[in-house]
Amino acid sequence: MTQTTSSVIESPVKKSAVNPIVIIGALFFIFGFVTWMNGTLIPYLKIACELTTQESYFVTFAFYIAYVVMGIPAGKTIKKFGFKNGMAIGLFIMAIGALMFIPAALTRTYGVFLVGLFIQGTGLTVLQTASNPYITILGPAETAARRISIMGICNKVAGALAPVILGAVALANIDQLTEKLKTLAPDQKVLELNELAARVILPYSIMVVVLVLLAILIYFSSLPEINTEHEDETVAAANTDKTSITQFPHLILGVVTLFVYVGAEVIAGDTISLYGTSQHIALSTAKFFTSCTLVSMIVGYLTGIFCIPRFITQQKALVASAILGAVLTVCALLTHGYASVFCIALLGLANSLMWPAIWPLALAGLGRFTKIASSLLVMGIAGGALLPLLYGYFSGKYSAQSAYIMLIPIYLFILYYSTIGHKAGRSNVKS
């Protein structure tokens, strides 16, 4: 058996089997594709369902709030069925959510779209609860950020493709259509909007098929199961008096850090298209800005793979990322037009190494508490539900640009965790 710091691989992969990292990488590609479709869905549903800007941001709320509501059930699912079967279950649930888009499009009902997004978020909650700790503990702790960076590339390549692909289908000729809708009679306008809503039926039908096939493939794959109940002597000795997950303050602070980080990431990726239009850039151009944010994240992940831990520790990378995020936010607030939009897109670079660094720092030394800790961390992803809504509120009350000021305290808190917070309650912690 191959032993990691605090876990044991119970069923090693056969030599002829596909490398586990390749399989998990495919999963990260899928949920990156699904997640970052939201950046296109926001302006698309705003037009198709005739929404206000603030109402349109309920796309991110419905999707990410599932991480809070379903976080604990997801953890229990993984505890009962294991990592591999949990991944398959998550994919099946995501397929059900994608299927909901068909009746939603046929009836052009925003509420049904939101239900579909919530179900997709539920599936992703289970999938992330299984896959993130799995890739974290599949090898040495000091190279966890590098492995997660590889997963991040798979995730963000898919994320960069998603707005382009969905945008080409759902938002084709959207500027002309928007102008045309202003001149149509009510009955003709309804027909045009129904046709617009129907554009998502084909891509989401394809997604259903792909997700179901992947779930079947994962279920019958030879992915090894990891026993996180096992603890080596050092971890076991440190945890002898621990009876609750709340006795790990570095984890609790890690959950808060993940909450604000995900909120910042979603704001940078999902608001940039509408922000571009507020800077007098045509939606036909602005619809691709989410992809620009994700491309900058890919650059960051590649940097992480090359540099961590060869030249910089994952903890120091988090420090640098937090500082860069705060600086870019200030630059976005002080500039205008494409320059300001470019600064928001570059936040992807600042955000890229945060997820890979937060997970190993938060899970360090948890041993048998790893699965429930993963549930709490996944619940932290709900920052993507709440903070974009707060941005939408400030955007409506003040301006789309000035609303970005809320990112500054977020990056300062991440800086705190990267320097002090990750050591809370732990002894002999090296930075």
TrEMBL record:
Membrane topology: Multi-pass membrane protein
Domain Major facilitator superfamily (MFS) profile: 20-426
Record's subcellular location: Cell inner membrane
Keyword vocabulary terms for this entry: Cell membrane, Membrane, Transmembrane, Transmembrane helix
Transmembrane feature ranges: 21-45, 57-75, 87-106, 112-132, 153-174, 201-220, 251-268, 288-308, 317-338, 344-364, 376-394, 400-420
Pfam families with a match to the protein in the record: MFS_1
Keyword DNA-binding: no
Main localization category: membrane
PROSITE patterns: MFS
SUPFAM superfamilies: MFS general substrate transporter
Biological role: Intake of glucose and galactose.
The family this protein is said to belong to: Belongs to the major facilitator superfamily. FHS transporter (TC 2.A.1.7) family.
Protein name (Swiss-Prot/TrEMBL): Sugar MFS transporter
Species annotation: Mucilaginibacter angelicae
